[in-house]
């Protein structure tokens, strides 16, 4: 009974004898007085570990601060002195600590902590190295020990720099039977350290600019990394992600690996690939910081000072950080809801004299609480986290100093704002503010990077990688890719749409697939390439159905294998589109990561929502979460207690013992000089001061601190040793300044120990907060484990790399691969996990002839010619490197006249699907494709130093074209306006407001870039000029977009403003062929370009791109001076070419012509009713109602004029629905208008007889017809009826 009960309490094992094994373990773990005397007790301690079925629970017990776990680990390992001891003690310990469960992401922080404790055991690594233990270990033990070294060297810098660890790694590799030894040596750069600078030129020669061009890199020279500053290291894993002050101040060029490998110093190809991607991506982020610091004088927040330390326990984010407050900027309070400043994860610098002093990251940006944080009336406050211990201590000391003066400073600043300019009291406040500011440590606060949070997860993931699935294919050009091993020899195509065709992968027949399915030959070849290659490169020109092929492949893999699929897309729009394809095919085991989906269909598949619906975490995880939370609360209280001590002014006994306690311990001699005599021990009298009051214990301290001399009347009562009398008098004769300096030294000593404690507590708090964050994601991990298809953006995949790597999807599908940085794809790949899973199949679908990945630093791009090529995607690199690929060849998007442009320029083999030849012509225009040529200069044509461009004439013309097309009956979601420049985008958005009830709709990425433009002072507030939600867009929004942010999307009609119009031929990045390719391939039915052909032709590099395009358009007669418009009611009339924006409302005021009576010409109808509806029928209804209301308001107006207005705005409506609507109208006058319209436009309408039952209505309708169109078939009937 007793054993059974014990066993029930011991959930980790059901064996009755385990309580004996556990007893020694528990005794040593719980009892601090227990003693692990010898190896016998050490083995019993290890036996106790065996009783834990959950090794995660074991780690929690060892890490529990209430237990002696860490101490017992050191005791156990202290007995190691030989290879036998390692086999008997260390290897079993590592086996318990490092297993499949503890290597899961949720327990990885705890595992790393325990392994670091083992590593830090005094002399352990030294004993193993000195005794050549690794040479004597068994093969299994050597692999276990190598895995231990590899794990800690990946996680921590200290082991990577340790010579002993390097010696051990070399010994393991020399054995020849340790699988991970080579990877460990590559991680440590062991060979590179031994070879020194064999691959590169000596450091002394780096300034020699006379080196041959074929050898030197003019950006980095050939100097290897290391030694330029405190953050320049040979191993990229040792580099702090947030740059240091010394790094930003360094004038030497950073080491940047060339795409050619010319200056590569790493032998291992995988390590070299990871190193290159990390260094280039980080430089892209850091280079913009250098620029922002150089311009800090105009972009900084003044008088920034550290005023507090804040510990937040608000779920889900535990955090501890410094609070920085700065002065408000002139012009009133900032609109923090719109201003994208101090975003979470942004990097800030505290600067003086334009140079950084301290770097930090924003940990809290709170703008929702009135009067607090960013909305503090005394100036905005933000939470900032500093990384290094030195910065921690300096910041704490500054906080203590500033706290004493900040309240008075803020109070005076608030009073100053209420005092008039001529008020004498203003001078008093100014002087008080200056005094307070002089006493505080103040800086200029510069936000050096708003987007660094997007780089950090990628960079951290790259630092944690030391292996790469499919590495042979990704690093070695020309290596033939094999069929993925997980695919069966025969696969079945989906039954739906493809008839369940059976395919033999060893003898794949493209012709059979084309015959038996709807796939064309290029699609069938792409399918073959995908199913027979481990690394797939499928190129798809615009409109060729890249998403369709990707979804089809995912569907085939899902139906024929058990592998899970991770779909990675560059944009949320593309990701939603891909997952919706799979949903339509019947896949429901989908998980969508990230919270920026706009798809209603995917709302129930969001990871966060699915995780919340999961009941609870595992028992061991819950227990660990409770322990972490308890520890966090304890540390929080400790930090707050010390902060209160630090904020308390230094006194004799305060804070925490004050000067008295400090002097007793550190300077007992000086303490004697301050000790107040208390009289004889017999208590016959007491020494008293003035008025007979007993002297306080701090009486002499206060006298000395205020600069007073020793009270002579008290001297007889002092019991100072005669040998110290000389020092006593000298001490009391110190000047006030000398005393102040001495007090400051004592204060720094007293506060220093407290500062060290706070720094330690803050570091401990941050580590446990990170562990809590990871533990709380166990539910998400369980959701992912059961999913067949996981969708994430490239940024989302990097942020969630830990749980995605634990899931280890076998198939990775990357959409828009030509637009994705190589580093983003590498981090999406999952290496070997504890379960043995890894990525087996990489499918890259994209087009490298469209826009490349976005890069902030031009010097890193391919077009710069520096050879760094950061914007060359993995997709492009592999294709240009000669890897086998497939290309889709039939486009289903553009009408032939439009596709001919990109066919002649970029895709000579591109064919049109027959469906695109049947597209309807654009209504109201005589041509479907036009280049509207003008010579109106762009805004500021003579200036070339602005960050963005605009052209007011083009903006007005494009808006009028949009208005005209809307009047033809097009829905707002059928139109899009594109432009290459944000300045022009903003101008078009503002001008669209001239069309009543119509707004501009922009993407999230365009919103961010517009806000950034506004923050730089280059624009006016765009916040009220656009809509973002899908519901608003459907209702009344016209999409406006920059070209770069519209890649992958399409529209029926595209209106394009090219902006550039100048005599110099400057066209900016419109000279880039890839951007022009995207520009010309977005439209389905019609495309209208507005630009200056002379500027495009005279551009240096751009001429080669634009001249052939313009020649092709000119030959076809598609280059005009205006928009050739036609009236839909009179299509045989000559088109009217509208060349100026004002001509649109003069010649086509309501979208039609002016052929009407004088009364009709003066008719006023609110045509904007047409612009915010979803279909033509509703347009007609609204127009009729508006016209009837107008007639009621102005009875004297001609009815025929009102009817003519109705005729103009209706266009081609759904007459059947209009008839139904008319039948429901009781008002006779309204019915007359409706019947007039029906009779005029649909003489053969099937229900006409029913519509003419009302004699009065029919008579009026026929009279209307006879008057407006005398030649109409109903004219005779109208005359007879009127008679």
Automatic annotation (TrEMBL):
Residues 1019-1030 have a biased composition (Low complexity). One of its GO terms (cellular component) is nuclear RNA-directed RNA polymerase complex. Residues 1012-1038 are annotated as: Disordered. GO terms for molecular function: helicase activity. Residues 519-855 form the DNA2/NAM7 helicase helicase domain. InterPro entries: DNA2/NAM7-like (IPR045055), DNA2/NAM7-like_C (IPR041679), DNA2/NAM7_AAA_11 (IPR041677), P-loop_NTPase (IPR027417), SF1_C_Upf1 (IPR047187). Pfam families: AAA_11, AAA_12. Residues 870-1093 form the DNA2/NAM7 helicase-like C-terminal domain. It comes from the Eukaryota. One of its GO terms (biological process) is regulatory ncRNA-mediated heterochromatin formation. This is NFX1-type zinc finger-containing protein 1. It comes from Seminavis robusta. The lineage of its organism: Eukaryota, Sar, Stramenopiles, Ochrophyta, Bacillariophyta.
């Amino acid at each position: 009974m007793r054993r059974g009960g014990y066993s029930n309490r011991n959930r980790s094992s059901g064996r009755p004898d385990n309580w004996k094994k556990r007893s020694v373990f528990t005794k040593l773990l719980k009892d601090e007085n227990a003693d692990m005397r010898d190896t016998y007790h050490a083995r019993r301690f290890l036996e106790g570990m065996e009783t834990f079925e959950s090794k995660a629970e074991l780690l929690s017990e060892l890490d529990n601060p209430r237990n002696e776990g860490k101490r017992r680990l050191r005791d156990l390992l202290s007995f190691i002195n030989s290879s036998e001891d390692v086999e008997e003690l260390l290897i079993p310990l590592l086996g318990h600590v490092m297993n499949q469960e503890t290597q899961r992401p949720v327990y990885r922080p705890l595992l790393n902590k325990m392994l670091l404790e083992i590593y830090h055991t005094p002399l352990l690594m030294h004993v193993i190295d000195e005794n050549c233990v690794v040479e004597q270990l068994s093969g299994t033990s050597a692999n276990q020990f190598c895995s231990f070294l590899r794990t800690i060297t990946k996680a921590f810098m200290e082991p990577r720099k340790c010579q002993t660890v390097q010696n051990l790694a070399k010994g393991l590799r020399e054995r020849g039977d340790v699988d991970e030894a080579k990877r460990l040596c590559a991680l440590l750069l062991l060979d590179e350290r031994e070879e020194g600078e064999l691959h590169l030129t000596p450091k002394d020669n780096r300034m020699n600019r006379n080196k041959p061009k074929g050898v030197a890199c003019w950006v980095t020279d050939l100097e290897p990394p290391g030694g330029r500053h405190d953050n320049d290291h040979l191993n990229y894993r040792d580099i702090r992600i947030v740059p240091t002050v010394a790094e930003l101040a360094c004038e030497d060029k950073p080491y940047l690996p060339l795409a050619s490998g010319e200056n590569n110093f790493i032998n291992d190809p995988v390590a070299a690939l990871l190193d290159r991607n990390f260094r280039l991506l980080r430089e892209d982020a850091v280079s913009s910081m250098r620029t922002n610091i150089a311009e800090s004088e105009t972009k900084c927040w003044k008088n920034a000072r550290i005023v507090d330390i804040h510990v937040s326990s608000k779920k889900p984010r535990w955090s501890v950080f410094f609070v920085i407050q700065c002065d408000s900027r002139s012009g009133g309070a900032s609109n923090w809801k719109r201003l994208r400043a101090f975003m979470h994860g942004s990097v800030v610098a505290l600067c003086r004299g334009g140079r950084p002093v301290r770097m930090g990251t924003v940990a809290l940006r709170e703008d929702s609480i009135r009067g607090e944080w960013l909305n503090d009336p005394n100036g905005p406050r933000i939470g900032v986290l500093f990384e290094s211990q030195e910065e921690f201590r300096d910041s704490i000391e500054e906080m203590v100093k500033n706290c004493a003066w900040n309240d008075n400073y803020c109070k005076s600043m608030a009073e100053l704002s209420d005092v008039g300019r001529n008020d004498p009291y203003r001078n008093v406040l100014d002087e008080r503010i200056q005094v307070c500011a002089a006493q505080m440590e103040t800086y200029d606060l510069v936000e050096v990077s708003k987007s660094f949070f997007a780089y950090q997860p990628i960079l951290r993931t790259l630092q944690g990688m030391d292996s790469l699935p499919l590495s042979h294919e990704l690093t070695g050009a020309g290596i033939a890719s094999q069929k993925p091993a997980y695919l069966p020899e025969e696969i079945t195509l989906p039954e739906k749409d493809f008839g369940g065709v059976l395919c033999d992968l060893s003898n794949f027949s493209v012709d059979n697939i084309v015959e038996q399915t709807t796939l064309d030959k290029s699609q069938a070849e792409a399918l073959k390439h995908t199913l027979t290659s481990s690394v797939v490169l499928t190129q798809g020109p615009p409109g060729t159905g890249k998403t369709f092929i990707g979804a089809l492949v995912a569907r085939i893999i899902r139906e024929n294998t058990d592998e899970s699929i991770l779909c990675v897309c560059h944009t949320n729009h593309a990701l939603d589109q891909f997952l919706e394809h799979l949903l339509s095919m019947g896949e429901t085991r989908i998980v969508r990561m990230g919270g920026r989906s706009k798809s209603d269909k995917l709302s129930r598949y969001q990871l966060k929502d699915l995780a919340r619906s999961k009941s609870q975490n595992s028992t061991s995880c819950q227990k660990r979460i409770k322990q972490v939370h308890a520890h966090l609360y304890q540390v929080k209280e400790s930090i707050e207690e010390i902060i209160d001590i630090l904020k308390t002014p230094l006194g004799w006994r305060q804070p925490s013992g004050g000067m008295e306690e400090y002097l007793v311990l550190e300077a007992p001699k000086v303490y004697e000089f301050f000790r107040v005599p208390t009289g004889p021990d017999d208590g016959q009298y007491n020494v008293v001061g003035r008025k007979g009051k007993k002297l306080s214990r701090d009486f002499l301290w206060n006298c000395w601190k205020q600069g007073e001399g020793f009270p002579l009347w008290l001297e007889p009562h002092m019991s100072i040793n005669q040998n110290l009398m000389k020092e006593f008098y000298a001490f009391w004769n110190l000047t006030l300044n000398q005393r102040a300096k001495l007090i400051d030294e004592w204060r720094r000593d007293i506060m220093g120990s407290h500062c060290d404690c706070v720094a330690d507590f803050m570091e401990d708090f941050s580590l446990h907060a990170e562990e809590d964050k990871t533990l709380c994601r166990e539910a998400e991990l369980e959701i992912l484990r059961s999913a067949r298809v996981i969708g994430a953006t490239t940024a989302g995949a990097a942020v969630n790399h830990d749980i995605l790597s634990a899931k280890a999807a076998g198939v990775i599908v990357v959409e828009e691969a030509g637009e994705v940085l190589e580093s983003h794809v590498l981090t999406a790949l999952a290496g070997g996990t504890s379960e043995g899973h890894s990525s087996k199949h990489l499918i890259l679908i994209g087009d490298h002839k469209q826009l490349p990945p976005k890069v902030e630093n031009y010097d890193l791009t391919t077009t710069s010619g520096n050879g760094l090529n950061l914007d060359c995607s993995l997709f492009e690199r592999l294709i240009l490197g000669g890897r086998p690929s497939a290309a889709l060849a039939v486009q289903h998007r553009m009408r032939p006249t439009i596709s001919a442009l990109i066919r002649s320029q970029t895709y000579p083999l591109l064919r049109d699907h027959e469906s695109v030849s049947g597209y309807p012509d654009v209504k109201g225009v005589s041509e479907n494709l036009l280049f509207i040529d003008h010579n109106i200069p762009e805004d500021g044509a003579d200036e070339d130093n602005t960050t963005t461009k605009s052209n007011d004439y083009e903006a007005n013309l494009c808006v009028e074209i949009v208005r005209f097309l809307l009047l033809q009956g097009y829905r707002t979601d059928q139109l899009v306006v594109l432009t290459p420049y944000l300045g022009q985008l903003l101008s078009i958005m503002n001008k669209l407001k001239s069309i009543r009830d119509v707004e501009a709709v922009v993407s999230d990425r365009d919103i961010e870039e517009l806000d950034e433009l506004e923050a730089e002072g280059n624009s006016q507030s765009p916040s009220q000029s656009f809509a973002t939600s899908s519901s608003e867009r459907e209702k009344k929004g016209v999409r406006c977009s920059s070209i770069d942010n519209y890649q992958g999307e399409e529209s029926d009609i595209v209106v394009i403003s090219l902006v550039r119009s100048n005599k110099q031929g400057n066209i900016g990045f419109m000279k880039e062929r890839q951007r022009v390719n995207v520009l010309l391939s977005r439209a389905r039915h019609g495309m209208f370009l507005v630009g200056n052909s002379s500027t495009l032709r005279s551009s240096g590099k751009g001429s080669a791109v634009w001249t052939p395009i313009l020649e092709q358009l000119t030959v076809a007669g598609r280059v005009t001076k205006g928009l050739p418009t036609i009236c839909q009611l009179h299509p045989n009339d000559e088109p009217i070419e509208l060349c100026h924006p004002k001509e649109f409302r003069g010649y086509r005021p309501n979208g039609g012509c002016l052929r009407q009576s004088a009364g009709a010409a003066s008719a006023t109808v609110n045509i904007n009713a047409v612009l915010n509806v979803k279909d033509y029928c509703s347009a007609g209804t609204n127009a009729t109602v508006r016209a009837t209301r107008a007639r009621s308001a102005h009875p004297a107006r001609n009815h025929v004029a009102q009817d003519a207005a109705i005729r103009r705005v209706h266009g081609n409506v759904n007459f059947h629905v209009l008839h139904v609507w008319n039948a429901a109208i009781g008002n006779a006058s309204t019915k007359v208008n409706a019947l007039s319209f029906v009779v005029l436009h649909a003489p053969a309408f099937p229900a006409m007889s029913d519509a003419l039952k009302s004699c009065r209505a029919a008579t009026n309708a026929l009279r209307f017809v006879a008057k407006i169109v005398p030649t109409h078939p109903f004219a005779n009937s109208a005359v007879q009826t009127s008679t």
